[in-house]
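re: ur question from earlier - yeah i can do the single chain one, its not a big deal. heres the input i used so u can compare w yours
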Amino acid sequence: MTQHTLPQASGQLFLTDGGIETTLIFHEGIELPHFAAFILLDRDRDALKRYYEPYLAIASRAQAGFILESPTWRCSSDWGAKLGLDASEVARLNRSAIELMHELRAAHAPSNAPVVVSGCVGPRGDGYDPGQVMTAPEAQRYHTPQIAAFSEARADLVTAVTMTNTPEAIGIARAAKQAGLPIVISFTVETDGRLPTGDTLKAAIAEVDRNTDSAPAYYMLNCAHPSHFAHVLEPSAEWTQRVRGLRSNASRKSHQELNESTTLDAGDPSELGAAHRELIARHPQINVLGGCCGTDHRHIEQISSACARDA
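and the output i got, formated as tokens:
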């Protein structure tokens, strides 16, 4: 499957899940050290199945496509080491995650819309703070083992989420291209619509495209409320057409405020749905919709209803 044959390239509405870590921690009472949902692949696989199933049901009712995003945001070597895992164990868990996505697709795929399996890559560092930024070659070397595991397990694509800087995004895009997998890059932005590094979204997309021969199938935004980025998307601009997906936060809080919060800010699902409807009206190329921190199936239900498209 290439970026040109990804089902979501058709323009049909595609949904994905919400904030897996915040849902499991705050709603299910499951402890996730380092926000690492992938540990449940060994400890409580059924909890992961229960998490994904409501989203698949929402997509089926809406006759929308669905992207099964693997619970592997933290499943890379540095984070694995923090959990006492060696490289072989991290690779096994990445393969296991994709296998679980295939199981869910086989069991719950609707007859009226496609389901795509995506291997989720997270940042090497913190999702809110770029910290010490790697070079693109360093990022490619770091992320290659995880992407190779996705390829071995037959993922349909790779999605790199909560990207805080362009060199890491470039390295991931190159690693995916080398593995022969389509790649989607999802940046996160602060309340001013800029990346945590201070780069504009426009500049970041241009930089990644320029250094990867436009390898990403498309770009997304995640881990920010629509009010944080709506004003920077230019409807008539070519670069904005490259943005085809959103995984928004329910909360309007800044990353720093969210980091310091001990309670979950779930926002207003209906309001979030309405905000997405307004965005889609201005940017009809955006057809992949899900959630991030603080969102759950209630938010995706509202987003789906607000943004429903003719079949």
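The domain at 7-306 is CATH 3.20.20.330 (TIM Barrel). not sure if urs matches, ping me
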